[in-house]
Write a structure and sequence with these properties.
The complex is a heterodimer.
Chain A lengths: L3 E7 L9 H9 L5 E5 L4 H13 L9 H5 L3 H7 L2 E4 L6 H14 L6 E5 L9 H7 L14 E4 L4 H8 L4 E4 L6 H11 L6 H14 L28 E4 L5 E4 L10 H8 L9 E2 L4 E3 L4 E6 L2 E5 L2 E3 L4 E21 L3 H19 L6 E5 L11 H6 L6 E10 L2 H17 L5 E19 L6 E5 L4
Parallel strand pairs in A: 1-2, 2-3, 3-6, 4-6
Antiparallel strand pairs in A: 1-7, 4-18, 5-14, 7-8, 8-12, 9-10, 10-13, 11-12, 14-16, 14-17, 15-16
Helix pairs in contact in A: 7-8, 8-9, 11-13
Chain B lengths: L3 E4 L4 E8 L2 E8 L5 H7 L2 H7 L7 E7 L4 E7 L20 H4 L3 E3 L9 H5 L4 H8 L4 E2 H4 L1
Antiparallel strand pairs in B: 1-6, 1-7, 2-3, 3-5, 4-5
Classes of the chains: A alpha+beta, B alpha+beta.
């Protein structure tokens, strides 16, 4: 049997809208079964979507789906490229309806497969989640649950494809399942094909972050350069029936596919390389071989699988209060000393007015990213001095008023703080805290349905 | 005799990933021949020391000789992670570059780099010093 080709159209919700176009062009010219996958569902996105759906039952899916699909949907339908994406977020059905409508706008007709059943918010109580929390702390007091979603596996996606879906839209599924689903469908792999499932899961793992395997998240000028990064090509994998595959990218695009880019991404977000837990298999990459077999072509084989876990992982989101951030700049002679004085003033005033509010201070230009919330790194850094420092204050609390007090105090530095304070910006956003739970498979019932043009 | 040193970033590449409050950093040898020497020098204990300010509760190094790579897993270093940290980088995406600040001792198995410089002919020591790459004299840094 020929290889199955799977391309990535997006690796996260904020990804480039036109990234899929060269991928679709390349897939359209290839033989055999071809799929395009989109991973656009971060943890935070899902909880925010759940809140949106509670306000309006017609929304709660990823509104960017139209931006992603509009440039390529017609070409995919015309050339038989099938699409799988987790655009559904908290409302896969509404997302499916939006895709049907989008196709009509483009003058085409299609069938959309909808995968549901990941939403556990109406299935289990806060106490049930608390009892199933991994390293249980956050849910111990059984707070109200904003969103709770299990990571579904590849099987419902394969079922939707078997039922003739041109596009499959899901809510929360394991990211790698977006690719494994099409492979189950194409090759007819079963639950016993452990090494093949492992290969397909690794394929999905390498696709799910888009350009991160083709030269994105890699360039370090002069040390490891990437040609044409502004037009980096998103990945296409050519997967064989034995689960091995070649990673490549569309001709004429930027980026690079070689041992280093593929190896870095193979280990991305992996903990124990012998036991990467996915819903369909436990992936072991310790015996994997990654070899360059041509220009921008890397062959990956040797993934091994162990039987799938008994439980499914679920992410549970609860109210995390609010996060407040405020910034102010100091520049020119003695800037660091003025910035330090400003930071000391804020700490002193808040210590009296909101003594239990933990405040983080960063000095962008001195130490910010590599600092720590307790401020030990910054305390050592002031003496280094700097001619251009942007102070950043951050705090979070259940009590928005307390956090706003911090923001007000930073703003007041304009007139009442050290000389030359400039450029105050402030922002207050709701925060969601998330916990991970292990859920018995019997409690999770994925469903598949197909919708098409009405009438 | 001066102990000569080479920055880790000249012989390896690194990539961070996160899961909650746990960070992993993949470290990949540019030249597979350097794997044993990097394994000897970039120990879990040394990485834990480098990340002291983030107070890791555990640091584990997984070895992947077939990939000429290592996977470092650091527990509880993300100040709560992306949904809880007060910092700008709750994902820890930038922390791979903290790992790459480590310096290695030059040895027979880990000689001066980069190789292409020595191909120009002439003295390796001069080339690497002039380019700012490869081995640097540890004393000159202090």
């Amino acid at each position: 049997m020929n290889v199955v080709r799977i391309g990535a159209g997006a690796g996260f919700a904020g990804d480039r809208r036109d990234a899929a176009m060269p991928v679709v062009k390349a897939l359209a010219q290839a033989e055999g079964l071809r799929f395009l996958i989109y991973e656009t569902l971060a943890e935070r996105t899902l909880a925010a979507s759940q809140l949106a759906r509670q306000r309006d039952g017609a929304v709660g899916y990823n509104p960017a789906l139209a931006h992603f699909l509009r440039p390529v949907l017609r070409d995919c339908l015309d050339t038989g490229i099938r699409i799988v994406g987790n655009f559904g977020a908290a409302n896969p059905r509404a997302a499916g309806q939006r895709i049907v409508q989008l196709a009509e706008e483009l003058g085409c007709r299609l069938r959309v497969g909808i995968v549901e059943g990941d939403d556990l918010s109406g299935v289990l109580s806060p106490q049930d989640f608390a009892a199933r929390e991994i390293d249980g702390r956050l849910l111990a007091a059984a707070p109200p649950v904003i969103a709770a979603n299990a990571y579904l596996g590849a099987e419902p996606i394969a079922q939707a494809l078997a039922q003739g879906a041109d596009v499959v839209v899901t809510g929360r599924v394991a990211d790698s399942a977006l690719a494994l689903g099409p492979l189950l469908h194409a090759f007819g792999w079963t639950r016993d094909d452990l090494d093949r499932l492992a290969g397909g899961t690794l394929a999905g793992h390498l696709l799910e972050c888009g350009a991160q395997v083709t030269g994105g998240y890699f360039a370090d000028p002069g040390i490891k350069d990437v040609p044409g990064l502004a037009e980096v090509g998103y990945p296409i994998l050519e997967i064989a029936a034995d689960g091995s595959f070649v990673v490549t990218k569309p001709e004429g695009t930027g980026g690079r596919v070689d041992r280093l880019t593929v190896t870095e991404q193979t280990l991305y977000e992996i903990h124990d390389p012998a036991a990467y837990l996915a819903p369909d298999v436990v992936l072991d990459i310790t015996d994997v071989t990654i070899e360059e077999v041509g220009a921008d072509r890397v062959r990956v084989h040797g993934a091994r699988g162990k039987r799938r876990p008994d439980h499914l992982k679920a992410t549970v989101c609860i109210d995390g209060g609010v996060l407040g951030e405020a910034e102010i700049s100091y520049a020119g002679p003695n800037a660091a000393a003025r910035a330090k004085l400003a930071a000391d003033i804020i700490r002193e005033r808040l210590a009296r007015r909101a003594p239990d509010l933990q405040i983080r201070v960063d000095a962008i230009g001195l130490v910010s990213i590599l600092g720590d919330s307790k401020g030990a790194a910054l305390a050592d850094a002031w003496v280094e001095g700097a001619a251009d420092v942007r102070l950043r204050f951050a705090a979070q609390d259940k009590d928005a008023g307390k956090v706003e007090w911090l923001l007000d105090e930073v703003e007041a530095l304009y007139c009442a703080g050290p000389a030359g304070g400039a450029g105050v910006r402030r922002r207050l956003v709701p925060r969601l805290a998330s916990a991970s739970c292990l859920i018995e498979r019997a409690l999770v019932a994925p469903t598949v349905s197909i919708i098409g043009p009405s009438g | 005799m001066t102990q000569r040193r080479i920055p880790l970033r000249m012989v390896a590449t690194a990539r961070s990933g996160d899961k909650g409050n746990r960070l992993n950093i993949a470290l990949v040898c540019r030249d597979p021949a350097h794997y044993p020497e990097i394994a000897r020098q970039v120990t879990a204990a040394r990485v834990a020391e480098l990340f002291t300010s983030r107070r890791p509760t555990a640091v584990v190094r997984y070895d992947l000789p077939k990939l000429s790579a290592f996977n470092f897993v650091l527990d509880d270093v993300l100040e709560g992670g992306v949904n809880a940290s007060l910092g700008l980088d709750g994902h820890g995406k930038s922390l791979s570059f903290l790992l790459l600040t480590l310096e290695l001792r030059c040895t027979e198995e880990l000689p001066e780099l980069p190789k292409q410089k020595s191909a120009d002919g002439g003295n390796d020591e001069k080339n690497s010093a002039g380019s700012g790459h490869g081995c640097v004299d540890a004393l000159s840094e202090r």
